[in-house]
Amino acid sequence: MKTLRIVELIKSDAVDCDVTVKGWVRTKRGNKNVAFIALNDGSCVASIQVVVELAKFDDETMRQIATGACIRVDGRLVKSPGEGQGVEVQASSIEIYGTADPATYPLQKKGHSLEFLRDIAYLRPRTNTFGAVLRIRHAMAFAIHKFFNDRGFYYWNSPLITASDCEGAGAMFQVTTLDLNNPPRTEDGRIDYSQDFFGKPCNLTVSGQLEGELGALSLGRIYTFGPTFRAENSNTPRHLSEFWMIEPEMAFYELEDNMELAEEFLKYLIGYALENCREDLEFMCKMWDKELIERLEFVLHNDFKRLDYTEGIEILKVSGRKFEFPCDWGCDLQSEHERYLVEEHFKRPVILVNYPKEIKAFYMKQNDDGRTVRAMDVLFPKIGEIIGGSEREADYGKLCARIKELNMNERELWWYLDTRRWGSAPHSGFGLGFERLLLFVTGMGNIRDVIPFPRTPQHAEF
Amino acid sequence: MKTLRIVELIKSDAVDCDVTVKGWVRTKRGNKNVAFIALNDGSCVASIQVVVELAKFDDETMRQIATGACIRVDGRLVKSPGEGQGVEVQASSIEIYGTADPATYPLQKKGHSLEFLRDIAYLRPRTNTFGAVLRIRHAMAFAIHKFFNDRGFYYWNSPLITASDCEGAGAMFQVTTLDLNNPPRTEDGRIDYSQDFFGKPCNLTVSGQLEGELGALSLGRIYTFGPTFRAENSNTPRHLSEFWMIEPEMAFYELEDNMELAEEFLKYLIGYALENCREDLEFMCKMWDKELIERLEFVLHNDFKRLDYTEGIEILKVSGRKFEFPCDWGCDLQSEHERYLVEEHFKRPVILVNYPKEIKAFYMKQNDDGRTVRAMDVLFPKIGEIIGGSEREADYGKLCARIKELNMNERELWWYLDTRRWGSAPHSGFGLGFERLLLFVTGMGNIRDVIPFPRTPQHAEF
Asked: Which residues of B touch A173 (CB under 8 A)?
């Protein structure tokens, strides 16, 4: 007999048939004649009720069926007379796969704090909350691949180990096979990197964009979706040292096309979640964030407001609002500014464009005004910036001049510059932090709670 | 007017309409009245022919249209009178986006060796071969996600940075933010890792499996698909220092289920390639591997032969074949043995099971015979082992005993062992090297040619 997952059993119309169900015991309750086991197999937030007539089973088996135990139940799927579930399983036999001693197993019935669960991150996927979060994480990852595949984008793997720190997007982790206790040294006493694995110092990438541009300028439209690393010593609910990033890059896309793609992309993902993760979202809404579904619908059904950074600054200045940080022209916007524009002024997501060049990266296309670049940031309620992107500078001369102006190492970027030397094309792209997206879609407040094994300063467990 | 990609134009039935087409010049030929430009935008291996009546265009524009230049053409899509293409574009106007000086641009018309292209890996996606390989790479990645999503598996991100080297699958890269020239030291002169970013020595993962098992024992069925690292100093056509791996892990799957999944998975991927990448496969077949499509069909249409390692050894011993390496019971099979079984003896893919425990990893389920484990390797024509997996040892006592026997560090594995302490379940999984798969599907011979930016000893360019 084929084992069905619980998500399939619950949605199945077939009752009064024999079934096998396997999973972990969430709870066991009952009276002296009958026990009710809530059994969960991770396929959905709901558990299925297993009804056990105690007279048919020995005491030792029943004793071992405690929260966390893994069991197999053979029985009959029937309509449930009780409330809260459509079907239940009347057990005819039970096999214990693995016990969970109530004296030691940490995940007992009572609710646990997110802090406590973070300490046992290796077990927390067994809870309803993390089951829901990780299923939503999967659904969003799949939706990302599907969105791009359906639109003729090619998945592109930028390298993780890199010898250059060109974007300057953040502090980097060094990758080495040298013996740190006793590294080889050159005659002048410095580390002899010619003896390191790659023959030179290497780091973990902070962004796959520059290599992604090579992809766009050959395959047309590409996207990366891979791990990215930042070695900043930031202990905040919004930073991870290892996170996943999505970076589409498109030849022949100008800034307007880029904005349209970003808006379509975010709405697609949110629509996908609402359609495919309804039970998990409702659970997250009930347990963690009452306004979650409302907020998702809000973004889905409103056009994003597009405006210039300069106009945004003017709105902030005449708002009469007292902000913690300054908001003069030339300042990078803080979360408080972004949220004011989105949540209070426009009451919809905002795409801010044409930022001062001083606060944006060297590769962004320079506007004719000489002081702004064709950058775009997509600002969302609750979390502020969710996407950052730009049209890229396609002009070899302008790009070189900007690199010199910033005292960057032009020689390290030779391969990047070559793309503008030969067959350069207008092109654009943006970056979306996967876990930032998940904060928005799950309603969780701490980024460590939307990835299975968070890496942060002093934390690399499991 | 909407710009269509060339793949869409070529398949379009709409002729005699105005179109805009953007791409890179592959070749330009013609006579003194008319020029024929082969324009490619990376969306497919075919180029579209642009017909230019020279009288309508100035000499300077035409001079700039050289191999590698990027242009925009506005014109009329018409049925082509010539052979080899269904439609062509009659140019009414041409804009030059980016030139490519024939004196410097490395990718001229003539064929280039794969070695030469490896040196300019940042440009090689602009060639027909690497365009085809990278589009197939995308298709396979998408098919992997679709296969698992359709079957109720959740995408699971095992961490990249890890503090443990438990599997012992290979040499590791160290990850650090310490200043190697002047690292902090403890009183006894050793490196003071408490001052490193994570407070202890950390490495790049060699496998996401152990963490993946945590996922299976909570969400039921998961799969990883992410980068993996090995610091072995291997300069072979089959090894990369950074590669991508797919590792599904399933609760309630025994070895038989695992074999079935692996066979279904590989056939699905190959079938997907044959259905969705036909032009690219035909190109690879023509240029690089005449038997490619035949070999893919062969695997698709043959049941995989399943047999015990012990039987396999017997077949090898009575084969009368002189092998370079020994094939006594207890030896790990070499590529020559695997290929003999697949290509000569059974003439079909082979799944070999129940290997001697000494040559397999500690976490594999021990058979009752005391000397074999429930391992499985899937062996393919041309490349040998493509998948390695096993049912996992679910018994806490047996797992601990094996770890002790092997003198492994039990304390570092506490979190892994805990999964067998609480709610243990029968479970299985396997690993597929993504680039190994791509060698098979593209027909390429060197693994450095199926990833955009190969990392190997002494090589971390771009």
From this structure: 161, 175-177, 197
Indicate the domain borders of chain B: 6-109, 124-171+206-449
**Integer Cα distance of A258 and A429 in angstroms:** 6
Helices (H), A277-340: 278-287, 292-301, 309-317, 335-339
Subunit contact B198:A160, Cβ cutoff 8 A:
no
DSSP conformational letter for A313: H
The CATH homologous superfamily to which domain B6-109 belongs is Nucleic acid-binding proteins (2.40.50.140)
Segment 42-101 of chain A within 8 Å of chain B by CB: 42-43, 68-70, 72, 97-101
**Would you say the C-alpha torsion B364, B367, B373, B376 has a positive or negative sign?**
negative
ipTM over 0.90: yes
CA distance B230 to B207: 9
**What is residue A165's predicted lDDT score, i.e. its pLDDT?**
66
Among the partner-chain residues B105, B152, B415, the one whose CB lies closest to the CB of A462 is B415
> Is the per-residue pLDDT at B3 higher than 90?
no
**CB–CB of B142 and A123 under 8 A?**
no
Looking at every residue in chain B, the average pLDDT score rounds to 95
Residues pairing with B377 in the sheet:
B352, B388
pTM of the model: 0.97
Domains B6-109 and B124-171+206-449 share a fold: no
Least Cα separation, residue A170 to chain B (angstroms): 13
Give the number of residues written for chain A.
462
Please judge whether B460 and A176 are an interchain contact, meaning their C-beta atoms are less than 8 angstroms apart: no
CATH code assigned to A124-171+206-449: 3.30.930.10
CB A331 within 8 A of CB A310: no
At residue A49, the pLDDT reads 96
**B332 to A192, B167, B228, B258, B361: CA distances (angstroms):** 38, 18, 23, 21, 12
Collect all residues of chain A within an 8 Å Cβ-Cβ radius of residue B197. 173, 231, 233, 241, 457-458
Give the bridge partners for B5, in sequence order: none
Q: Which tokens in the block code for residue A320?
A: 């009469």
User: Do A175 and B180 make contact, defined as CB atoms within 8 angstroms?
Assistant: no
